[in-house]
Write a structure and sequence with these properties.
The protein is of the alpha/beta class and 396 residues long. It has helices at 2-42, 44-49, 51-74, 131-139, 164-170, 179-197, 214-227, 242-257, 293-298, 322-346, 367-395, and strands at residues 80-84, 87-88, 93-94, 100-104, 106-110, 120-125, 150-155, 173-175, 204-207, 275-284, 306-314, 361-363.
Length: 396
């Protein structure tokens, strides 16, 4: 009887927790997203005078909004005490002394991307569930100005979510999947990059080359691989070349021409460095059990640590001919397959080439900063309510 009552109490507590979290996030969205839009409407005079300053301010607010999404997972109990080396993300220094116990929800492996946060890069990510986007929103928060200056390529269905209008304003691209739309979508993507990428001072592009979730594409991908004598993959699917090729060739063409679209020519009239890196990013979930966005919002899943592995390639080492680029991209996903196989077997990613031991880095969010961002959102919502209410009374 005691066990039954205890279970009822735990279930009741979980339901209450879910209801409270959902109510908070619903209200949070209702104040934060309209405030973001209204701030940008009010700042339009600045856009006419100084476009760079306007998009810099927009980028800061965009980062704050993504920090709110990151905080959903951070506060949902997806933290665990890990014996990992202390890591200072801002300085990029590893403390090789005694491991320290740290609470973290994302552990990073592989190359240190902090060293290239000021350069242009394309990030290629495996896709397992909607939670992958939230994971990236979290783990990129401490990467200098990356979140402020990045562009997302997402499935068109995301434009109909609560965050769709924010992504539209920021200049992200929503791509429609399927053979019937492929050619047109690639043309639209090229036009979008030429119009918005450098004119808004973007640096990183986040792309999921698989074109869909693993569970939905795995069987089709394996049949295609068998038919065409290609690698048989289980933990990832064969990537699609189209968007990756358009992005690389468009951005490199802008570099060679020396005349970025939109008239932007860098700080003090200097020519931007241009695209320099490809960041091959692999997301791994314990027991191959990915998280979806509902889990992030409602927080009903037990504590979980997400693992992210980075490998950086110079753009000079990436072939641009279609056939060679296809082979290169396939090889990256074969490597992802090997990385994830090792991760699922051992609970850790393997060490980089030339090293005997992998050194994980704990990605830590600042609770005080998250509190201040959330507080600012609610204060902004109240301010805009008062402003709009005042104008309404004046008019009517």
């Amino acid at each position: 009887m005691a066990v039954t009552l205890d279970r009822i109490r735990k279930m009741g507590f979980l339901i209450l927790k879910i209801v409270v979290r959902f109510a908070f996030m619903f209200i949070n969205n209702m104040v934060a997203i309209p405030s973001y839009v209204l701030y940008l409407v009010a700042l339009q005079p600045i856009r006419l005078v100084d476009r760079k300053l306007f998009w810099c301010i927009e980028g800061v607010m965009f980062k704050w909004l993504l920090a709110m999404v990151a905080s959903w997972g951070w506060t949902a109990g997806y933290t665990v005490n890990l014996q990992v080396p202390a890591w200072s993300g801002c300085q990029g220094k590893m403390d090789l002394g005694e491991p320290q116990v740290q609470a973290c929800s994302v552990v990073e492996w592989g190359d240190n991307v902090h060293t290239i946060t000021e350069d242009e890069a394309v990030m290629l990510v495996n896709h397992q569930a909607t939670g992958d986007v939230c994971t990236l929103m979290m783990c990129l928060q401490d990467k200098s100005t990356v979140v402020r200056q990045m562009m997302w390529l997402m499935d068109h269905i995301f434009q109909y979510t609560n965050f769709g209008i924010v992504s539209r304003v920021h200049g992200d691209f929503f791509i429609r999947q399927g053979k019937a739309h492929r050619d047109q979508q690639l043309i639209l993507l090229k036009d979008h990059l030429e119009k918005y990428y450098r004119s808004r001072d973007r640096k990183w592009i986040i792309l999921f080359p698989e074109g869909g979730f693993l569970r939905k594409r795995r069987e089709t991908s394996q049949l295609y691989a068998k038919k065409n004598n290609l690698p048989f993959l289980t933990h990832v699917t064969l990537p699609r070349l189209g968007a990756t090729e358009v992005i690389l060739k468009t951005l490199l063409a802008q570099q060679e021409n020396g005349t970025p679209a939109g008239g932007y020519s860098g700080l003090a009239g200097r020519k931007p460095k241009g695209l320099q890196w490809i960041i091959d990013t692999t997301i791994g979930y314990p027991n191959a059990d990915p998280m979806d966005i509902q889990t992030w919002i409602l927080g009903y899943r037990p504590p979980t640590v997400t693992h992210v592995y980075y490998r950086i390639y110079s753009i000079k080492d990436v072939p641009m001919e279609t056939e060679a680029l296809t082979d290169w991209l396939y090889q990256r996903f074969v490597e992802k397959e090997e990385l994830l196989s090792h991760f699922y077997e051992t609970g850790a990613f393997p060490p980089p080439q030339g090293q005997k031991k992998a050194m994980p880095r704990a990605m830590i969010l600042n609770n005080i900063w998250l509190f201040l961002v959330q507080s600012l959102a609610f204060l902004s919502g109240y301010m805009w309510y008062c402003v709009l209410h005042y104008f309404y009374q004046c008019l009517f």
